[in-house]
Amino acid sequence: MKIKNICCIGAGYVGGPTMSVIAQQCPEITVTIVDINAERIAAWNAGDLSKLPVYEPGLDAVVAEARGRNLFFSTDVEAAIAAADMIFISVNTPTKTYGKGKGMAADLKYIELCARQIAAVATGDKIVVEKSTLPVRTAETLKSILHNTGNGVGFHILSNPEFLAEGTAIADLHKPDRVLIGGENPEAVQALVDVYAAWVPRERILTTNLWSSELSKLTANAFLAQRVSSINAISELCEKTGANVDEVARAIGTDSRIGPKFLKASVGFGGSCFQKDILNLVYIARSYGLHEVAHYWEQVIAMNDHQKRRFADNIVQAMYNTVSGKKIAFLGWAFKKDTNDTRESAAIYVADALLNEEANIVVYDPKVSAEQVYADLDYLGTRSPGENRKLVEVVTDPYDAADRAHAIAVLTEWDEFKAYDWHRIKDHMMKPAFVFDGRKLLGGNDLPSIGFQYYAIGE
Ligand code: NAD
Ligand code: UGA
């Protein structure tokens, strides 16, 4: 089986960058990315590459190279399915907000809709690839829908979870640690191996059975998030004992069995996946009656919630136990640097806690729009949209954010924050001028000697 035409359903943070890179690396394959969100597709087709719906360093160059050659973005889902020999499903799989498993299980309604649409449209054999992160054994559901509602054509299902991290997506896709492909049919597996082998060394393409592949994705995210919660747990102990969490991280990270990555203490992990995927893992374990397993992984989330709450509590406590009517400038709103994604960002929850204490918040983020900040706060439903707009201001100049602020809170580790004129910032702030560094970003700026009251996580 040689793949000539790929369709990807879902033009989001995963579908957009992954398929752009496949198109870039495999010029002989036609790649069409489709989405029901017409606005998103229009943005992917925008002439001005700074307007792409996903901000990722290097993505604009990849799209510029392949778009119009063998990479296409469209809202015509049926036509793209009909033309493809291989269909990736890369739609969102959020935590369920209703019914059984509410707040825990993955909502698979978008996945099922895709399967039904593929089955209805396909008049020839297709390879269907799970790119979305899915509960283990979802391929069974897909198989059942495809075979029971299809036109009698053959379907092969593969699991090919995505491991890219936002902000480094293009580098991760160009040089992945590994590509994982799970499947039952050797020819179908080989067809997908051949696509990746255009640029990924063969020894980095791992093949497994379907269930191992599906479960490995949830497991990888759980392990990564667990490391962040582990170092964050130690950060609180550091604050009480005079140890410095960065020094502890370096000391343990040089042990080759532990390794240095993912040991950066922070205000808490965010992003669309860690929490969602662990909740899903916990739900699956519980559904098999594995209560100890479920309880074990649940603690990773509990620790993360504690870290976000603790950061907000520390701000209030340090500022003489009240922030009512005080202006607090937020540097950063995205869940990490080099992305415009704000899903589950710690900033949202810290802001909510401080707004409950009647603080006024001014937000500056180099890539996040005011509409997004308000949408995130409105989604919480803690207060009315009107109140959110009254209490929270979003500015496009960091110095405006700091002007007459009582405190600055660093929520995202954007590099540009280190290059600011911190003398100028202090001069325009209320005194004492507080900085709460949720990313341990400004240690090198020697803020105490400039006259700031400087608090960093884990020191
Ligand atoms: P996203 O919300 O950015 O994009 C999903 C897109 O799918 C949306 O644009 C939506 O309109 C579209 N869609 C939904 N149903 C559709 C349908 N029936 N037909 C056509 N389009 C439809 O989500 P994402 O961040 O790209 O994540 C997608 C999946 O990949 C999730 O399962 C996620 O867990 C997983 N994942 C995400 C990341 C990440 O960094 N964001 C990394 C690895 C894996
Ligand atoms: C994460 C995984 O790293 C990817 O492999 C996976 O594909 C993806 O989830 C997914 O399935 O969606 P992502 O969420 O984009 O990627 O970004 P990460 O770099 O993992 O960061 C997640 C959160 O943890 C961020 O808020 C980040 O600031 C925080 N973090 C990370 C820390 O606080 N400390 C660290 O040492 C590392």
Q: Summed up, what is this model?
A:
The chain is an alpha/beta fold and 459 residues long. It has helices at 15-25, 38-44, 59-66, 77-83, 109-121, 138-149, 169-174, 186-196, 210-241, 245-253, 274-287, 291-318, 346-356, 370-380, 385-391, 398-402, 422-427, 447-450; strands at 5-9, 30-34, 71-74, 86-89, 126-130, 155-159, 179-183, 205-208, 327-331, 360-364, 392-394, 407-410, 434-437, 453-456. The chain contains 18 helices and 14 strands.
Describe the protein:
With 459 residues, the chain is of the alpha/beta class. Helices cover 44% and strands 14% of the residues. The chain has 18 helices and 14 strands. It has helices spanning 15-25, 38-44, 59-66, 77-83, 109-121, 138-149, 169-174, 186-196, 210-241, 245-253, 274-287, 291-318, 346-356, 370-380, 385-391, 398-402, 422-427, 447-450; strands at residues 5-9, 30-34, 71-74, 86-89, 126-130, 155-159, 179-183, 205-208, 327-331, 360-364, 392-394, 407-410, 434-437, 453-456. The strands form two sheets. Strands 3-2-1-4-5-6-7-8 form an eight-stranded mixed β-sheet, with helices on both faces. It has a six-stranded parallel β-sheet with strand order 11-10-9-12-13-14. Helix 18 (447-450) links the parallel strand 13 (434-437) and strand 14 (453-456). Helix 1 crosses helix 3 and helix 9 packs across helix 11. The longest helix has 32 residues, at 210-241. It is globular, with a radius of gyration of 23 Å. The mean pLDDT is 97. Bound molecules: nicotinamide-adenine-dinucleotide (NAD) and uridine-5'-diphosphate-glucuronic acid. Uridine-5'-diphosphate-glucuronic acid binds next to helix 9.
